[in-house]
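Section handout 9: paired folding examples.
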Amino acid sequence: MNRKKSSTLLDNAVNALASLPGVGQKTALRLALYMLRRDVEYTERFAAALLALRREVKYCRTCHNICEDEQCSICADPHRDRSIVCVVENIREVLAIENTGQFRGLYHVLGGILSPMDGIGPGDLQVDSLVQRVARENVQEVILALSATMEGDTTGFFIYRKLAHQPVNVTVIARGVSVGDEIEYADEITLGRAITSRTRFTCP
């Protein structure tokens, strides 16, 4: 027997919130009712922040991190070590590594990892721009900070092969991050040690 709808507006809000990853119907309902209990100004500020994020956010022309201008604050920082580039899958990894306080180089966000099962190939990632960047900016070291999964290792090997003709040292973060783990879920101490204890990348 179908549940009688108490309000179409409430149901629409619940369905919208439930479309977010990790948010079920019960949590969505709780969030929607919470919004109703707050004043209208709170909800307007909340909605405005999301709209501004979606409409105004840009991607750094150098590393593809999110930013508000043409270049992100990390790439624009003159105190960062420009000879070292840390390659990560997405923006979440940038935030995770920055929170360790152990890395002072620059980043390069791939926008994903190779996954034929999901239809993600080399052309879907920012690999070519990485190769061009290494050649153009005299990068001395490329750190592969990718998840310790089959897809992450495959992506790392692909990048290693693409950079093989360039005089750059390719390293990989130490396996303080367990095999099969996602970088973004590693604690800051473990991730920080993995960055500082990185080793030279070798072919499998």
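Moving on to protein 2 of 2.
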Amino acid sequence: MKFRVEVTESAQAQIEKYYDWYQENIPSFATPWLSKLFEALDTLRQFPNRCPLSPEHDEFREEVRQLLYGKRRNAYRILFTVQDDIVYVLHIRHHAEARLTAEEIYGEEFGDET
């Protein structure tokens, strides 16, 4: 079964933020980084459930998985969920950033539901 990969608005904004940073600070790295990121996202079309649950997955209503992309200082966590035949890319996080919170996904009302 092939899955469709959809990048959420939030994840797209993060991709653009990181790309812009690389363009400004390491221009020769920006385009290859972006190209390989999209190659990594494309691998989610097949067997997305091969990826482990993210460390923060138990804070969410659905399973949140992660795909690691990059190496060392340039490592990122691609956080996503699978619903039916669609992989929703929720966030792209630099490995050194704090864990994703439920409020970042669901908004402030999430705290009121528990």
